[in-house]
Write a structure and sequence with these properties.
Length: 299
């Protein structure tokens, strides 16, 4: 069973979607198409086979079919069978398939590591799973169909709604995995201490060598361990923590940008601004103005 991992730093491309109800004994036709397809069961059972692997899609279950792989029905469904279907595109460079071992490693990392909360720029979808909160996914799917049928002035409305639906399904898959693994201790409690130390010292000028010395690690070993467990290198994580600290000061204080840069361990204000723009796609000043507008609108 594969798990599909795809970057969502850009929205994925919506192609088509619908609500299928047979009304007669139905079997899926044999075909191979160049897009992804998601089938979400609503009533009775859809019998789908992909490259020799068979799935019974019951109500409340989701199946992800891959592009350029032959799929077909292998048995007739009841006339009452009903499901949502969705086709979308994702560039090859944005996606990869994980085997069971690789998928388990990814899922453990995200379900058990609170330091990654809110920082994951991709979705993780098993080939076949049962969303824990099916109604939430159903609401998003109906909203997607509404956007498509309403003929919005920009087609990107459907792309963003599609991506929101995939995020919701991914969240439910990760949550389901976390529940199945409840009681399993973190594999590396010492690494958790490293992450907490970085958070506490976010305002300091810190390096990988500083952290390795603090925790009596070999710097090269710590670098490899961090990359394996966190999915990013240590310097990227340090910058992320610093940027979170900077955003908080931008929102809650009137301090000059230069002083905020210093408070985040940056001696060079221009370099701070470059790093901030890389992470937020806007300057610190633009971020602060955006916050003030949001604050005023909420009053």
């Amino acid at each position: 069973m594969y798990v599909w991992k795809a970057s969502i730093e850009k929205p994925l491309e919506f192609i088509s979607a619908g609500h299928f109800t047979a009304g007669y004994p139905w079997i899926h036709s044999k075909r191979s198409i160049n897009s992804y397809e998601i089938i979400i069961g609503l009533r009775d059972i859809a019998y789908i086979e992909q490259e020799g692997e068979r799935f019974e899609v019951h109500a409340g279950q989701a199946l992800l079919l891959l592009p350029n792989r032959t799929h077909e029905g292998y048995a007739f469904s009841d006339p009452q069978v009903s499901f949502y279907w969705l086709h979308f595109q994702c560039p090859d460079e944005q996606a990869e398939l994980l085997d069971e071992k690789g998928a388990e490693s990814e899922l453990i990392r995200y379900s058990q590591n609170p330091f990654l909360e809110g920082s994951i720029p991709y979705v993780l979808l098993p080939a076949f799973f049962e969303p824990l909160e099916f109604d939430k996914a159903g609401i998003l799917f109906r909203q997607l169909l509404h956007i498509v049928e309403s003929r919005y002035y920009t087609r990107q409305g459907a792309d963003y709604m599609l991506t929101s639906l995939l995020i919701e399904l991914s969240q439910q898959a990760v949550t389901a995995f976390a529940k199945s693994q409840s009681g399993t201790a973190s594999k590396n409690q010492r690494l958790m201490s490293v992450l907490e130390w970085i958070r506490i010292h976010a305002a300091d000028k810190i390096s990988v060598d500083d952290i390795a010395l603090e925790f009596n690690y070999n710097a090269d070993y710590l670098t490899r361990l961090f990359k394996k467990e966190m999915g990013m290198n240590m310097q990227e994580y340090i910058q992320k923590v610093k940027m979170d600290h900077a955003k908080e000061e931008l929102c809650r204080t009137d301090l000059p940008i230069k002083e905020i840069a210093h408070n985040c361990g940056f001696e060079d204000e221009k370099y701070f601004m470059k790093v901030f723009r890389k992470h937020q796609q806007m300057t610190p000043t633009e971020f602060r103005r955006a916050f003030y507008r949001t604050h005023m609108n909420n009053r």
